[in-house]
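Dear colleagues,

I hope this message finds you well. In preparation for our joint manuscript, I am sending the CD28 molecule (Oncorhynchus tshawytscha) sequence together with its predicted structure, so that both groups work from identical material. I would be grateful if you could confirm receipt.
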Amino acid sequence: MSLSLLTFLCLGLCLPVWNALRVTQPYRVVSHRGEVELFCSYHHTGRHEPEELRITLYQGMYGEQEEQKVCISSFTHNSTAFQVEGEGERKVRCRGQLRPGKVNLTISGLRGNDTDLYRCAIEVLYPPPYLRTFGNGTLLYITEEPGCFTPEAQRRDDVTGETSVRLPLAGLAAVLIVISAIAILLVHQVLQRKRRFEAIVPMMSQNDGRFD
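The corresponding structure tokens are as follows:
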């Protein structure tokens, strides 16, 4: 076998091993105070460390449509921090920080109905060869944070507050009415017994005089 053929086979078999990219993500992350932190870890195998990377965050388990892109940014080892606005009509903001072997993403602007699976796609732009790999996906659970009160919400709260105050007062009034009614009945019964007793005493005295 010629030397050129051996070289060709070696390059064909070894290059995929020498240059590989693997991306991993946590299984589940819960938002806190309107923000969610997502760590996209990557492991690159190759002769040279990546000098320029690009990260894209997609919403959904499958697909790479434009409307699925949440944010996208490129960065280098000389510029490790970035902040970008969301793609399209999204009011989402992504802040990122490149760390050894991972990208820390802080995402703000997501709402409760944005709870979904989110995938990190990391690309090695330089040096060659170009590599692109998706992570396994992370379930981002977005909790609804209390916001500013609208006039309608304020009115509802006022009505609720008034109702909550009226209910104890109404209960107290009902208890007082029941107690008053019971007291009146007891007094009425006592007066009736007293009148009966006063009517029986003279009759007993007359009967005693007859027997004498």
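For the figure legend, we might mention the following. Residues 5-17 have pLDDT under 50 and may be disordered. The chain is about 35% helix and 35% strand.

With kind regards,
E.M.
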